[in-house]
Specification:
About 35% of the residues lie in helices and about 20% in strands. The protein is α/β, with parallel strands linked by helices. It comes from Cloeon dipterum.
Length: about 240
C-alpha cells in the first residue's frame, strides 16, 4: 500500500510530546527549538518555567529535534539546526537549500498529524529563535492553512523568501495565518529591533501580526511570554 505524504517523515526528526490531558487530541502545537538545542531541551525549558501550566485538555504539544548538519556559524562543525546561516544578520542572504529541504521534512511531520485525524486548521506552528524563523517559512510558504504561527525572539532576513511569497500572492485565495511574536528588550544576540522589523514587514504584506516586547528579558524563554503564548494558543485552537 502506498504511503501518504504525511507518513514519509525522515527518521532524523525525532520528537518528544506533551500529551493532552483529555481523552484524545483535537489539535496540535509544533514547537521548534533554537539552534544547538533539541526537542527534549526546549520541552524541559518550557515545562520548567510553566510546570503544568503549558498542558492543554485538547492539544498535544510536539517538540521535534533538528538533525545534525554543518553550521557555518560554528565554523562548519555540525549542530542541531533547522537550516544553515551564512551570518547572524538580517542583511545576510538566506541559505535556501537547507531552509527548503527542512521545510519539506517538517511539512511531512505536520501532515502525519493530519493523517492521524487532526485538521490542519487546528495545528499551530512556532518556535524559539531559529525555530521561530523556520516556522515562518513553513507556515507562509508551505502550510498557510494552519491555525496560526508563533515566533519567540526570532527574525527573518531582509530579502526573505517569506516576504516574496506573500508579495506575489503565493497563498492564492488562502488567508495568511495570524502571527504571534514576542521578544526580549535586552536581547543582544537577536536584537528586538530585528524581530519588530519582521513584524512590521509581515503586517504590511497582510498578515494579522501581533508583537509583544518583554522588559528585562534577554535571548531566552521566560514565564510571562510563555503565559501569553498559552492564552494565544487557546484563542486560536479553542476546546
Amino acid at each position: 500500500m502506498a504511503q501518504s505524504v504525511g507518513q514519509r517523515v525522515i527518521q532524523t526528526l525525532q520528537t518528544t510530546v506533551i500529551g493532552q490531558t483529555g481523552v484524545s487530541p483535537t489539535g496540535a502545537v509544533i514547537f521548534l527549538h533554537g539552534s544547538g538545542d533539541n526537542g527534549h531541551g526546549v520541552q524541559d525549558w518550557v515545562q520548567g518555567l510553566m510546570n503544568q501550566q503549558f498542558m492543554f485538555s485538547h492539544l498535544k504539544v510536539i517538540f521535534p529535534s533538528a538533525p545534525f548538519m554543518p553550521y557555518t556559524l560554528y565554523g562548519g562543525d555540525p549542530s542541531t539546526v533547522w537550516f544553515d546561516r551564512l551570518d547572524l544578520s538580517p542583511m545576510a542572504p538566506e541559505h535556501l537549500e537547507s531552509v527548503n529541504s527542512m521545510a519539506e521534512n517538517l511539512k511531512a511531520l505536520v501532515l502525519k498529524e493530519v493523517d492521524s485525524g487532526i485538521p490542519l486548521e487546528r495545528i499551530a506552528i512556532g518556535g524559539f529563535s531559529m525555530g521561530g524563523a523556520m516556522s515562518l517559512h513553513l507556515a507562509y510558504r508551505y502550510l498557510p492553512q494552519v491555525a496560526g504561527v508563533f515566533g519567540l525572539s526570532c527574525f527573518l532576513n531582509e530579502n526573505s523568501e517569506v516576504y516574496k511569497a506573500l508579495e506575489v500572492g503565493q497563498l492564492e485565495n488562502q488567508t495568511a495565518p495570524p502571527l504571534f511574536q514576542t521578544h526580549g528588550d535586552n536581547d543582544t544576540l537577536v536584537p528586538s529591533a530585528w524581530g519588530n522589523a519582521t513584524h512590521l514587514k509581515l503586517s504590511q504584506l497582510g498578515v494579522n501580526a501581533s508583537f509583544r516586547s518583554f522588559p528585562r528579558t534577554e535571548h531566552e524563554l521566560k514565564k510571562p511570554a510563555l503565559k501569553a503564548l498559552y492564552s494565544w494558543l487557546l484563542d486560536r485552537i479553542p476546546v
